[in-house]
Amino acid sequence: MLTANNISLQFGKRVLFDEVNVQFTKGNCYGIIGANGAGKSTFLKILTGEQDPTSGSVELEAGARLSVLKQNHFAYDNYSALETVIMGHTVLYAIMKEKDALYAKEDFTEEDGIKAGDLEAEFADLNGWNAESDASELLSNLGISKEKQEKLMSDLTANEKIRVLLAQAIFGDPDVLVLDEPTNDLDVETISWLENFLADYQNTVIVVSHDRHFLDAVCTHVADIDFGKIQLFTGNYSFWYESSQLILSQRASKNKKAEEKIKELKDFIARFSANAAKSKQATSRKKALDKINVDEMKASSRKYPAIIFMQERELGNQILQLFDLGYEKDGEVLFSGLNLNLTKGDKVGVISRDSRAVDAFYKILSGELKPTSGRFEWGVTVKHAYLPNENSEFFEGNDANLIDWLRQYSTNKEEAFVRGFLGKMLFTGEESFKSVKVLSGGEKVRCMVSRIMLQQANVILLNEPTSHLDLESITAFNNGVKDFQGVALLTTQDHHFMQTSTNRIFEFGPNGCIDKQFTTFDDYISDDANKARREALYQGVKI
Length: 543
What we know:
CATH superfamily of the domain at 320-538: P-loop containing nucleotide triphosphate hydrolases
Distance between the termini: 54 Å
Number of helices: 20
Oligomer: single chain
CATH class of the domain at 320-538: Alpha Beta
Largest sheet: 6 strands, mixed
Number of strands: 18
CATH topology of the domain at 320-538: Rossmann fold
Strand content: 15-25%
């Protein structure tokens, strides 16, 4: 059990937390959520002792072990991947090193022998004899081969280091496991393994993530940071989101009686709990109904942007065709033999194991690159807009305010018109006059989304649209793409976004492509018949 008692944190006049009291218990997984700047990562640092609160305390149950996913990817460069994982269990690792030092002594004494015996007993109690095999199995499950497990961390790629540090945090079944954005840079298969691992984990898990599918898969509770407080809700993220939207709409209906509101909440919980895929906590929710006091339930202070993609003109029947499209970089084939014919209503999930291939694909379609083989044709009625993964070129060397920055992309130069699109992305009042030089990563993406909405294209190309965005913006973006009446091609690491926004999957690599129409992302990746074909895209035989 981990308990936060009267935690307050203040930076100058800004109060981040105000007398927060929350208890995390065994067997539960808590998803920490909150708007950007609410203090999610800061709260994790308080729990782990990395950040001192202004007042209050954190108590870990006596004898319990807390483990944290490390963020410094260079801290273990002088150690092998296998040893780095074992170092996650600090007590076990310290015993191992002390044992090794004793046995290495040239003048090994009787006293040393007694000490070694005590250490051996502690080592056995901590399952030390299985440490290497357990660590190796963890690494294998996370995609680190036996060969790479013996390599120094400095010899591994950034993505491989992330997986090793994740294994380090998990190793030895800590009593409390704290994870900050654990799915970053993991592929679908590895995320699926982690979801299953945490769903079966018997101890306490506390996690911050912008991946809604992941939160839904692993969380038994949501800890919502709002108004400087933390409120616990039973259930996963989707349940929290749907219920918070319901409460918000109820707040707007001032004439509704409390009895009507409670009935509406009960009906909602009954519907939601009936779906086992969405809820493992139906019984707890139903018990919680007795405690509901609608007047005490606060509507969230969060604001959701209005992401609405309108078309300037309707699409004709000819939209986009690829004819054996290919691209090489520095003599390396990133993709080849791509054939595709888009039709009205297509929302295409574009995937490849090589992010360089995806970037090149979108740049070719947007006219920034030329293919090295094959060709492509846009239909005459098509107006396309492109959201790149990297947007720095749109802001570097520019000190314009947001209004003037967006105005350059608009045929209508009137300030009120331009400000309307900024306002949809929550840049209101004085915020719309701030310089683009001081924008955060998330604010830059929101500006780029304003730009795309302004273009009123009938085909949108989205390369990792959720990068740097908070959950509220991701949710709004997801809904905007679902409601879009035109055609979309999108690549995203957000599983829920991909699953709910696409109806066609297009995967490609050096050896060709797979084009699956009328399918969902989940059906595509879980189809055993697809697995051999998918491997062939990247391995050897052209398909």
